[in-house]
């Protein structure tokens, strides 16, 4: 593989680890509470976070933890966002569908999250990144498959870095494995 | 652009309420017909909707999307000479925003899963393949095309079948209604009185290959493709067109072509006030405001995950026929920033076309294709 991982973040089972070191943990069966508490621990003023659905909050947190760990700035068009995801935006889909089934008025604030690529948009907005976006649905996460996509985006010249991996959330089940990768051959400065 | 292997495109097909197959569809569009019409009580909570929907009687199973997507795939594969290529490396890409979403209503999460639809379609293919679902809002179709092309250019696969499909569903209709984004009559892309989009359902497919001899009908050449984000807002188009501007710029750079080489633009052109204005700004900034441009949305409605492939299929056909189609629904182009919107069909020799799309999440895509 021609990429090198600069930093990685895992969020599962109530724990957030960056490069293998646990940075946050909270015993809560409620994903909403876990996400909000871990966001508070970042000590960040970003009110948009509270508008996001759980999938976006999860992906956003992963990206913030990773970027905090690298102390590096990026050009606004050199980071590709490449995410794999299992159940698409099912959590928000379900909420939107429930309103329809009940005959209630649907909410644009929920509907806008019924697409899995919105999490890429949230990260792009947060970082002012205009670069590549790729969202692939997969039954489960395979790191080698993700690394191959990141490698292709970098080696074909579309990006110098790739941020992404796996982000999946449905009801209180969730899993995130994110990576920030760069080309192995040279350190692009 | 880095890819060493040339990528060819062909076997384009569209199955939509406007027509079955690309020939019928293009002929109907040429004659000014549309697949859009007023539907009465299409869903429980919707009394009237101007949209493109297949007749119910067209289908025999409880999964119309699987039927029309599979049919489109068969048509595309029917346009190929397939012998030993069946043994080569194939990629199958489904582009969809919501897949078989109607099953969500009854709680059938398995069948509502786009991966399930992809696997059902993949099972019918005459070759073994790696299967992928790409879901990136309204740029899904172009994203799938670019993904497949990059894989071929990098010699990771030999051929790819790409299909896009989405349904006209209660799910998306109610969602777009909540944004007040729907026009109650025929949509009017780029028109001064445009007031919203129409939704539609369709499937569209095409084949990409490193081997130009695989196509019965001469292929076109894929030049380049790029994707970029507005980094601005998750549902509102950028006011400056920055994301689309940068995306087209990248596509031009990757292709090694100058903007003057672009002879036709198939824009996204949904018919909403802000989307069309955003595109006008981006194209003008690119110096493409005089290039003939259309939107195909007036023929099909916005077919979401299928739209990029529907519209590039129509663009390919336009190149083959040397016939540019008018923007159905647009009588008086009226974006603040002016564009050369096609109001009549024009017969003209064209070699190189640009296709763009933009979507929720701030995503934009641009693809350049050329005649051989």
What is the structure about, briefly put?
The complex is a heterodimer of chains A (189) and B (372). By secondary structure, chain A is α/β, with parallel strands linked by helices. Chain A has helices at residues 31-41, 54-70, 90-102, 108-111, 118-127, 143-155, and strands spanning 3-12, 15-18, 21-25, 79-85, 133-137, 161-170, 173-183.
Please outline the helices and strands.
The complex is a heterodimer of chains A (189) and B (372).
Chain A (H helix, E strand, L loop, with lengths): L2 E10 L2 E4 L2 E5 L5 H11 L12 H17 L8 E7 L4 H13 L5 H4 L6 H10 L5 E5 L5 H13 L5 E10 L2 E11 L6
Parallel strand pairs in A: 4-5, 4-6
Antiparallel strand pairs in A: 1-2, 1-7, 2-3, 6-7
Chain B lengths: L6 E10 L2 E2 L1 H9 L6 E7 L2 E7 L11 H15 L11 E6 L6 H4 L3 H4 L1 H10 L5 E6 L5 H14 L5 E8 L3 H9 L20 E2 L1 E8 L10 E10 L12 H14 L8 E3 L6 H13 L7 E2 L2 H4 L6 H15 L1 E2 L21 E2 L4 E8 L3 E9 L1
Parallel strand pairs in B: 4-8, 5-6, 5-7, 11-12, 11-15
Antiparallel strand pairs in B: 1-2, 1-9, 1-10, 3-4, 7-9, 10-16, 13-14, 15-16
Helix pairs in contact in B: 6-11, 8-9
């Amino acid at each position: 593989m021609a990429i090198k991982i600069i930093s990685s973040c895992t969020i599962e089972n109530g724990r957030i680890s960056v490069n293998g070191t646990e940075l946050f943990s909270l015993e809560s069966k409620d994903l909403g509470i876990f996400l909000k508490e871990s966001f508070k621990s970042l000590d960040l003023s970003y009110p948009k976070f509270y508008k996001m659905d759980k999938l976006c909050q999860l992906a956003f947190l992963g990206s913030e933890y990773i970027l905090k760990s690298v102390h590096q700035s990026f050009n606004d068009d050199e980071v590709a966002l490449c995410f794999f995801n299992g159940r698409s935006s099912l959590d928000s889909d379900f909420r939107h569908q429930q309103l329809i089934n009940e005959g209630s008025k649907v909410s644009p604030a929920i509907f806008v999250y019924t697409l899995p690529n919105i999490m890429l948009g949230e990260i792009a907005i947060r970082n002012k990144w205009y670069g590549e976006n790729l969202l692939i649905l997969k039954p489960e996460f395979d790191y080698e498959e993700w690394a191959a996509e990141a490698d292709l985006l970098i080696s074909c010249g579309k990006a110098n870095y790739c941020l992404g991996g796996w982000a999946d959330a449905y009801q209180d089940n969730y899993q995130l494995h994110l990576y920030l990768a760069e080309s192995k051959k040279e350190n692009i400065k | 652009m880095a890819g060493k292997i040339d990528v060819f495109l062909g076997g384009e097909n569209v199955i939509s309420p406007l027509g079955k197959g690309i020939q019928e569809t293009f002929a109907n569009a040429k004659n000014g017909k549309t697949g859009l019409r007023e539907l009465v009580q299409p869903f429980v909570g919707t009394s009237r909707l101007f949209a493109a929907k297949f007749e119910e009687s067209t289908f025999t199973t409880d999964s119309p999307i699987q039927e029309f997507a599979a049919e489109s795939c068969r048509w595309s594969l029917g346009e190929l000479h397939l012998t030993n290529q069946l043994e080569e490396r194939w990629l199958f890409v489904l582009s969809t925003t919501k897949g078989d979403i109607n099953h969500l209503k009854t709680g059938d999460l398995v069948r509502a899963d786009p991966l399930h639809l992809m696997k059902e379609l993949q099972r019918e293919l005459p070759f073994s393949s790696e299967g992928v679902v790409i879901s990136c809002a309204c740029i899904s179709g172009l994203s799938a095309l670019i993904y497949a092309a990059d894989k071929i250019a990098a010699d990771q696969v030999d051929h790819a079948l790409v299909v896009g499909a989405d349904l006209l569903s209660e799910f998306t209709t109610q969602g777009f209604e909540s944004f007040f984004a729907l026009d109650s009559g025929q949509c009017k892309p780029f028109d001064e009185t445009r007031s919203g989009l129409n939704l539609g359902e369709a499937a569209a497919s095409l084949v990409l290959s490193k081997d130009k001899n695989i196509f019965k009908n001469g292929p076109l050449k894929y030049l380049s493709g790029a994707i970029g984000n507005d980094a601005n807002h998750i549902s509102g188009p950028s006011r400056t067109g920055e994301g689309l501007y940068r995306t087209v710029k990248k596509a031009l750079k990757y292709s090694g072509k100058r903007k003057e080489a672009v002879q036709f633009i198939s824009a996204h052109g949904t018919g909403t006030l802000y989307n069309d204005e955003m595109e006008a700004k981006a194209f003008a900034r690119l110096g493409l405001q005089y290039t003939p441009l259309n939107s195909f949305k007036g023929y099909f409605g916005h077919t979401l995950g299928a739209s990029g492939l529907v519209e590039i299929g129509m663009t390919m056909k336009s190149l083959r026929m040397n016939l540019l189609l008018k923007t159905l629904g647009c009588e008086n182009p009226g974006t603040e920033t002016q564009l050369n919107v096609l109001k009549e069909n024009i017969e003209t020799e064209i070699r190189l076309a640009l296709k763009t799309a933009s979507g929720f999440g701030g995503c934009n895509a641009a693809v350049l294709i050329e005649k051989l």
